[in-house]
Write a structure and sequence with these properties.
This protein is of the alpha/beta class and 89 residues long. It is 35% helix and 21% strand. The chain contains three helices and five strands. Strands 1-2-4 form a three-stranded mixed sheet, covered by helices on one side. Helix 1 packs parallel to helix 3.
């Protein structure tokens, strides 16, 4: 999936396709080196669907059962977004 980060001064906007679970955006914002970081799902139109965190897979449910992503995809997305921050500084 494509991750986009736009930096404007001390602000970063992270956008990803699909519907990531809230924990994904919270983790990316927490790890951001920027004073203000905004996280946006439903962006770019490439990829998509639900992006559950690994801890939700054992619980099942609609989002977990229909996602095309496997366990660990959300955590990989977080790691890759955080790695991209270094390229913006």
């Amino acid at each position: 999936m494509e991750i986009q980060i736009l930096r404007i001064g001390d602000m970063a906007m992270v956008s990803v396709p699909g519907e990531p679970f809230a924990e994904v955006g919270a983790a990316i914002k927490r790890e951001s080196p920027f004073p203000l970081t905004m996280f946006c799902g439903y962006s770019s139109g490439k990829g998509g669907d639900y992006i559950p965190v690994a801890s939700e897979f054992p619980h099942g449910g609609y989002e977990v059962e229909r996602t095309p992503y496997g366990t660990g995809a959300a955590e990989s997305l977080i790691r890759q977004a955080v790695a991209l921050f270094a390229k913006l500084q």
